[in-house]
Amino acid sequence: MVTAIEVYLDDDAVDWLAVKWKGKSAEELVDSIDFFRDIVTWPFEKLIHVKMILHLRGMEYAEKVKENCLAYWKATGTYIDAVGEALENFMKVFNGEGSPPGAAVLFT
User: Fold this and answer.
1) Three-state DSSP state, 50
2) Which pTM value belongs to this model?
3) How far is CA 34 from CA 42, 53, 93, 94, 95, in A?
4) Which residues contact 11 (CB under 8 A, 6 or more apart)?
5) What is the CATH classification number for the domain harbouring 53?
6) 4-57 pLDDT tens trace
7) b/e per residue, 25-62, with b = 16+ CB within 10 A?
8) What residue stretches are annotated with the Chalcone isomerase domain (predicted)?
9) Distance CA 99, CA 63 (A)
10) Domain that holds residue 11
C-alpha cells in the first residue's frame, strides 16, 4: 500500500445514498464497487484526503492517478478529449514535487 484514502461527505450524502442502498448490510456495502463509485460520482460535496504512506515522487503519484482514471473512463465509455487535457494539467501540478510519508493531497 502506497497511499491511504479518506472520503468526507456532505451531510446530504446519506439521504442520496440511502435511497439506492437501504437494506444492504455493512459487508455488502464494503464489497460493492458500485457503492464506492456512487460515493465518488454522486452530486454532493465531498473532500478526498490522500495520505502518502511511502515516499512518492510527484510524477509517480500523478501517473498512477492518470492511469486509473483513463482506464475507468475508457471502460465506461465516458472518456472525452477534454478529460485528456484536464489530466495533462493535473500532471503539471505534481511535476517536480515530492511526497514523503505523511504528506497529504486534498481534493474537492
Assistant:
1) strand
2) 0.73
3) 11, 26, 30, 29, 32
4) none
5) 3.50.70.10
6) 999 898 888 888 899 999 999 999 999 998 998 888 888 888 899 999 999 988
7) eeeeeeeeeeeeeebeeeeeeeeeebebeeebebeebb
8) 2-108
9) 14
10) 3-107
